[in-house]
Amino acid sequence: MNNNRLLNNRSSSNSLFPPPNSAQRVSNNLPAGQRQKVTLKPGHSPLDWAHLNSNTPFHILRGVSQQTPPPQYVRITKDELQTHKTKEDCWTCINGKVFNITPYIDFHPGGVNEIMKCAGRDGTALFNKYHSWVNADRMLEKCLIGMLVNN
Ligand code: HEM
Question: Model-level pTM?
């Protein structure tokens, strides 16, 4: 197929690229054009979060004492998770891992109100509903406290 035919095919079929249901078009579950980006406070860009992450000791971002065992040895029950649901002390669980999101709240590009919906509870479903492509494990690497277990 030569280039002319390719070009003609595209214009004559009047098709959209990417196609309407392509994954490249689907950025969230909101109607097209209604992104819920918020204005973040100065010093709270994604780059600022990355910087804070690389320069803050692990136990500070986890919000635990320095003696706390590594996350794979820390078991957190649902009851315990539920007690950390304020902006000043906020935990959530994503895919079985419990994170201290307190330091991240003001950096959340979707806003404080949205992220607080997963405070003190399993936020996996909400998280995936809005942005399954976001890598929470990587972004919250140093906020990982432990693993969620049955009560
Ligand atoms: C620990 C939990 C969460 C993390 C690490 C996180 C992270 C992020 C990141 C990195 C973005 C920017 C995505 C992009 O620009 O492509 C974002 C946007 C957003 N987040 Fe979250 N999020 C979390 C929880 C939530 C929850 C629970 C909700 C809703 C209840 C939510 C709603 C949103 C919305 C509406 C946006 C804007 C989406 C857009 O621009 O299209 N997030 N979040």
Answer: 0.80
